[in-house]
Design goal:
This protein is an alpha/beta fold. The chain has 13 helices and 21 strands. It has helices at about 1-25, 30-40, 75-90, 140-150, 175-180, 270-285, 295-300, 325-335, 335-350, 355-370, 395-405, 410-415, 475-490; strands spanning about 45-55, 60-65, 95-100, 105, 110, 115-120, 155, 160, 195-205, 210-215, 225, 230, 235-240, 250-255, 260-265, 290, 295, 315-320, 440-445, 450-455, 465-470. The strands form five sheets. Strands 2-1-21-20-19 form a five-stranded antiparallel sheet, sandwiched between helices. A hairpin with a 4-residue loop joins strand 4 and strand 5 (about 110).
């Protein structure tokens, strides 16, 4: 009857009104923060975007500019680490092999041939993030002891670092000159060692005076450092300039006054050579003689002595990295560019046989596209986010986060993100709010680009995923951080 129909229509209309009113109320605060940011003078010439999804639904709860391409900075690491976990698995381990060519006389202990360290793309060899502080032995000292236990007493040849699993060009083409000499600009080498990092220990005096370098640790053979750093300012504003495979380093800028052993970190020019030289020193220290100078496969090929690189080699020992889950944990918690680049290159190696920049970013982009992610507007130029040529949409980042919430390796991914008010780059954010100890997110920051991407449980206990990016704002990085913090708190407080 008409009366029954009218009654049903009224109930349906009331249900729809109630639903939309509830939905509106649940995002009211977040929408208000977005509206305020739209009017913010510091963002007048900026581009910024937000996308929030419930992980159980393939649609946005709230979005603004979610399809515009923006520089992601280190939020790019979610793209790389997520793909690495999905493709390789959380229990995957890198392998580094100690091999020899020639003849090993087990009676006399003479190896008449070369000893090779075959890099497997492991970023953790002698890394500070996996160093047991109670263990005083370095990785190469442990390897040397293993070789001695196998009866080797003399090597009539050289220690050769083999980094050929990755291409020789360690630096992504879009990284800038001001980054690559510094520790955060260390490139991914097929045989990375000691985080591809050395530390300059400065002594500074009164403001405006020249500084001096007390020591360089570890000792990098033939490293030439030109120091023009002066005393001044409150922070480390010293930058190291230099290219891969060049031992010339120029240091410019300022460090705080009246400091002793003030540390500034730089990138080791030739990590594979440094590893081979470290091995040679470790062998000699326990009485194993080595007749020739340490070198690398790359250096031998450049010297057109490729005939010396014997493909017939025997394995003496295999070193395994910690599982990928732990590597991803440090990659995201400490935002380690080197680790992210290693993961990207290794995925390229698995797909093509060599870790190359030109292949790797396309492989990752296509991987996510094949999983159903909308990758329009996504252009990837490295794995860590240091390159300003990277652009992505908040929609793409949020879709990747949502997909990862259904991945069997999700726990490893989720647990790698800093926790609001507790750890990493989020340690001082959202304190005393619903986001504290609840939100987990990867932050990103390079000049005039800041963002956050991650997860939070709303007041209903539902897991939300989100991405917030801002570029070219006209305020200090700290001020922008505080503006975005209001967004993060509002995301957490949705109902």
């Amino acid at each position: 009857s008409l009366a029954t129909f009218s009654k049903h229509l009224f109930i349906f209309s009331f249900f729809c009104f109630s639903f939309f009113q509830l939905h509106s109320q649940s995002t009211t605060k977040l929408n208000a923060v977005i509206e305020n940011l739209k009017k913010d003078n510091a963002l007048k010439h900026a581009s910024w975007s937000i996308c929030v999804m419930n992980t159980k639904k393939d649609s946005a709860i709230v979005e603004y500019n979610s399809t515009i391409s923006l520089v992601p900075a280190s939020t790019m690491k979610i793209v790389t680490t997520g793909a690495a976990l999905s493709i390789l698995g959380s229990d995957f381990k890198f392998e580094t092999k100690i091999q020899y060519d020639g003849i090993l006389d087990t009676i006399t202990g003479l190896l008449k041939g070369n000893l090779y360290i075959i890099g497997g793309g492991d970023p953790t060899l002698e890394s500070e993030y996996f160093k047991d502080k109670k263990d005083s032995l370095t990785t190469t000292e442990k390897w040397a002891a293993i070789l001695k236990s196998k009866g080797i007493k003399k090597i009539d040849g050289a220690i050769i670092g083999d980094e050929s699993i990755f291409e020789d060009n360690m630096i992504p083409s879009q990284w800038i000159w001001g980054d690559m000499g510094n520790y955060f600009g260390a490139g991914a080498c097929g045989l990375t060692y000691h985080d591809n990092k050395y530390t300059l220990h400065f002594k500074s005096g009164t403001i405006g005076t020249k500084t001096s370098i007390n020591k360089i640790l570890p000792d990098v053979t033939d490293l030439q450092v030109i120091n023009t750093v002066t005393s001044g300012g409150k922070d480390d504003n010293a930058f190291i300039y230099g290219s891969p495979y060049s031992n010339y380093r120029l240091v410019q800028g300022t460090i705080p006054a009246n400091k002793n052993n003030y540390e500034v970190d730089g990138s080791i020019p030739d990590p594979a050579l440094f590893c081979a030289q470290s091995m040679e020193k470790s062998l000699k220290a326990i009485g194993i003689a080595v007749s020739k100078k340490a070198t690398t496969v790359r250096a031998l090929k450049e010297a057109t002595e490729s005939s010396e690189i014997n493909i017939n080699k025997q394995t003496l020992y295999t070193h395994y990295s910690p599982p990928l889950e732990k590597i991803v944990y440090w990659t995201n918690l400490k935002s380690i560019n080197l680790y992210a680049e290693h993961l990207l290159k290794y995925i390229s190696y698995k797909k093509t046989g060599i870790g190359k920049e030109t292949d790797r970013t396309e492989i990752i982009s296509n991987y996510w596209k094949d999983q159903g992610v909308d990758v329009s507007g996504f252009f990837m130029n490295d794995g860590c986010g240091l390159a300003r040529a990277n652009v992505i949409t908040t929609k793409t980042e949020t879709q990747i986060l949502r997909l990862m919430s259904k991945d069997k390796n999700f726990n490893a991914f989720y647990n790698s993100f800093p926790i609001a008010g507790k750890s990493g780059s989020l340690g001082s954010l959202c304190e005393g709010t619903y986001a504290e100890n609840n939100m987990r997110a990867k932050s990103g920051y390079i000049t005039r680009a800041r963002g956050y991407a991650g997860y939070v449980k709303n007041k209903k206990g539902e897991l939300l995923c989100f991405s917030v990016l801002a570029n070219n704002y006209e305020c200090t990085p700290t001020e922008m951080k505080l503006k975005l913090e209001k967004l993060l708190i509002a995301i957490a407080e949705t109902e």
